[in-house]
Amino acid sequence: MALHPYAPRVVASRYSAPIIGYVLFSPREQDVLHGWSWEVIGVIDTKGDCAEWSFPAVPGAVRSARHAVHEALRGWGLDAVVGDVAVLLVSELVTNSMRYASGPIHVRVVRPHSSGDGPGAHAGLLVEVSDPLPDPPTERTAGPDDEGGRGLQLVACSARRWGIRCGKSGKTVWFELALPG
Questions:
Q1: Contact predicate 110/50, CB 8 Å
Q2: Both ends of the chain: CA-CA distance in Å?
Q3: What is the dihedral of CA 56, 98, 70, 18, to 10 degrees?
Q4: Cβ contacts of residue 178 below 8 Å, gap of 6+?
Q5: Coil, strand, or helix at residue 37?
Q6: DSSP assignment of 98-161, as one string?
Q7: Cβ neighbours of residue 42 under 8 Å, at least 6 residues apart?
Q8: Which of 44, 96, 135, 136 lies at 20 to 30 Å from 164 by C-alpha?
Q9: What gap in Å lies between CA 81 and CA 73, rounded to an integer?
Q10: Three-state secondary structure call for residue 86
């Protein structure tokens, strides 16, 4: 079986030894994956309080990102609390990345630490979408007939906090969703 041209290289560290290779999904694995497609997810890590994926900037990446985030939140028991909003905002940000960047799109979801203290502690669900384009997105006001221009407005209205980090290898748009409790 030949590799699909967008099959990502995977490094998974949740096993006793790192596994490095390519992911091939077949129709037989559909029951496990709850939806088979050729837009393969590159799993970077899904262990503990963090889940991280890499997607090719191709049609289908938005759907794959939504599904991956939803499944991670379901596994953490957070899908009923923030699942719909998180998936909507990830969809908007991955769409923006796909529209303007040609390289891989990284999505990272970090759930809050149960103790609420220590380094990196935060009170909400942290979500980051990164791409290799160094230019930050521009929040704009969309007119009633515009088909685009509402993604960052949705993020700003729905998230407790959000921002943009620019670095040498691109940018990250992040947001934090409040959790009850």
A1: yes
A2: 49
A3: 30
A4: 123, 124, 160
A5: coil
A6: HHH--S-EEEEEEPPPSS--STT--SEEEEEEEES--SPP---PPPTT-SS--HHHHHHHH-SE
A7: 8, 9, 10, 23, 53, 54, 55, 104
A8: 44
A9: 9
A10: helix
* Tokens encoding 151: 């993604």
Residues 6+ apart with CB under 8 A from 87: 66, 69, 70, 73
pLDDT, one tens digit for every residue, the chain (181 residues): 343 333 343 333 333 333 333 333 333 333 333 433 334 445 555 567 899 999 999 989 999 999 999 999 999 999 999 999 999 999 999 999 999 888 899 999 999 865 555 555 557 999 999 999 998 888 888 888 888 778 899 999 999 999 999 988 999 999 999 998 7
Structure tokens at 83: 């699942």
**Phi (first) and psi of residue 85, to 5 degrees:** -70, -45
Instruction: Please state, in angstroms and rounded to a whole number, the distance separating the CA atoms of residues 68 and 118.
Output: 28
